[in-house]
Amino acid sequence: MTQAVTAPPPANTGKKLRLPAWPVASILAFYPVWWALGLGVLIFALMAVPMLFLLIRRRAAGRPLRLPPGFGWWAVFLIAVVVSIGALGADPAGTVAGHAVGRLPGAGYKALMYASLTVLLVYAGNLTEAELPRRRLVKLLGWLFVVTVLGGLLGMVAGNFQFTSPVEWLLPSGVRNKGFVQSLVHPYAAQIMDIVGEGQPRPAAPWGYTNTWGNNFCLLAGWLVVAAWQTRSGKAKFWAVVCLVVSVVPAVVSLNRGLWIGIGVLIVYVAIRYVMAGKLWVLGAVALAAAALGIALVATPLGDTVGARLDNGKSNGVRSFLIDRAVEGFQGSPVIGYGGTRNTLGGRNSITVGESAGCERCGNFTVGGNGQLWQLLFAHGAVGTVGYLGFFAYGLWRFRRDRSAIGVAASGAIVTSFSAMLWYNSLVTPLAFMVLAFALLWRNSIEGETT
Fold first, then answer.
1. What torsion, rounded to 10 degrees, do the Cα atoms 255, 259, 265, 268 define?
2. Domain of 439?
3. Which pTM was predicted?
4. In this structure, is residue 12 part of a structural domain?
5. What is the pLDDT of residues 224-268, one digit of tens each?
6. What is the C-alpha to C-alpha distance for residues 334 and 84, in angstroms, rounded to an integer?
């Protein structure tokens, strides 16, 4: 009786089953290029296609596909996003009446982006050290902080800089002239606002909005520090310090109070983590940095800028008004929400002030447009909010013992995003950086490098 002989697998099978790094790496490394082309945040949806294909191909070939810890929470959120679309036709009290069909594109866009970032999360978490080393991913995120600072400086010195992107040229004029479409495909350096003076440029490049610029500033700052200090190059450390010092200028000039609070939250969190690990020197470093910042604010015009911003809280009334509307809307549909945002009838002082062809931003404020928390409550109800917050909160708890530099930076980014959700929306790039931070925590735990 002869024994069957099984032919060995082809030598290159392992290589075919490997996940390439380019879908993730190209998004991050070439983001300024995508922005200039008019792709911007759309690149996440475009790259989700090959990522999903590669994940399915590897799973079909018998390779295991890991899901992140606590993914059940995220699945609940995604289900809530889809189910809540059924409520798009509802008109909560005090909002502009409309039809579900007219609201479907906006809701569909958000659902597509949530799905795309889910693919990014799973793909980045399944990459191995041989495919995309964590240190390389950290460097790419640190690079994007440099891009953020450069974009901030561009917004300061050339606030009116803008140009028509190639993608924008391809769109019909009736589409590309819409304010929302402009924010996606039209590159510009800053948003011009009159918060402390007429025509004040506030940095936005390459993230589309000043608030998104400030949110990403907080989410990415820690990665530059980790990337620099993980190298043996004294030159890299020097330039990282220079970048951090220079970044103070656009951070202050942005007049972004949420950014200032977020950086404070990040510094306090990181300091607590290091003190708990017995590294008391961090207290001296924080005190030294605080003293240097104080001197800079006193000795330069930056202090006057901060003072002027604190004295001019023009947005406070609008934010309070929108928070009240979001809470009232949540009470009207507490389980699944309304599937998306709504526009208020007029402004906070009068229902007669509204949007027109000549002034798209007059009145008709967006309920759910002033913070991720309020959007979650209003658009996706308690189910969606619990699923979203539960996923990231579970990640913080699950990886709480990760005391590595990557672990502290990643958890710090998620913690600061929790404070930011009171005034910033997360789609698209802030949430992308949040899921990448989660993926790094997840991969740290798999590799066993948490100290």
1. -70
2. 20-447
3. 0.90
4. no
5. 999 998 888 888 899 999 999 999 999 998 888 899 999 999 999
6. 11
